[in-house]
Amino acid sequence: MIRSAFNINFSDLKINIAQIETAMGYKDGESQETISELTMKILKEAELMCQVKAEYTVYPILKVNDKEKTLEIDDQVFNVKRIVYGQLKRSDSVAVFLCTAGEKLGSRSREAMKRGDLLEGYIYDVVGSEIADVAADIMQDKLRKELAVEGKKITNRYSPGYCDWDVAEQHKLFQLLPDNFCGIRLNSSALMDPEKSVSGFIGIGENVRYNEYTCGLCDMKDCIYRKVKRVSI
Fold it and tell me: Is residue 151 part of a domain?
């Protein structure tokens, strides 16, 4: 079983103002100077306060059920639904992962919102989300390089709550990571705390494929990945 848990230096994320403004929906050069200045301020704060962590554990897939669109992993049956199942069914194993930006940016966002500074609260929120997602990119690339020496490939990563996969299955997913290096907790609605965290599966095998951009497979209109096209790893 492959297991890996590690901290990520903020400098390794290489997040810049333009990236955050793109995530907020601005095209190049569209945002106001005040927004750029506030984003720069928050990024500098994030560099000092964030504790970025990632981990994954690789499990064999014990059984796939083409009719039910389920995967059995370590005696847990995951009803990942049609889209995710279609991408993972050729995998012989799966990496179960967690990544987090830590608690502080989420707290700063809520504090700003509470005092009525909606713009600042929103930028804290976007920065936190971007940090968590880029940390997941770094984690995924590390996994890809480790497996490449074995002649294995990986799929895109897929998370509960997306592509019709019920977010309640987070509870099953977290049972596969009992040590939880990232320190993420779930509430009764299966939402993560810290909220600026990412969890999910990455398929592994000789016959799987990484798709540069998979939104054509999914009809979820409010997914953040429709707004930002990421670079293929």
Answer: yes
pTM: 0.89
The answer to the question of residue 232 being in a domain is no
Q: Structural domain of residue 115, as residue ranges?
A: 3-226
Q: Looking at the 3D structure of the chain, how many domains does it have?
A: 1
- The full 3-state SS of the chain, as one line of letters, equals CCEEEEEECHHHHCCCHHHHHHHCCCCCCCCCHHHHHHHHHHHHHHHHHCCEEEEEEEEECCEEECCCCEEEECCEEEECHHHHHHHHCCCCEEEEEEEECCCHHHHHHHHHHHCCCHHHHHHHHHHHHHHHHHHHHHHHHHHHHHHHCCCCEEEEEECCCCCCCCHHHHHHHHHCCCCCCCCCEECCCCCEECCCEEEEEEEEECCCCCCCCCHHHCCCCCCHHHCCCCCCC
Tell me: the pLDDT tens digits for 121-166? 999 999 999 999 999 999 999 999 999 999 999 999 999 999 999 9
Look up the CATH number of the domain holding residue 206.
Answer: 3.40.109.40
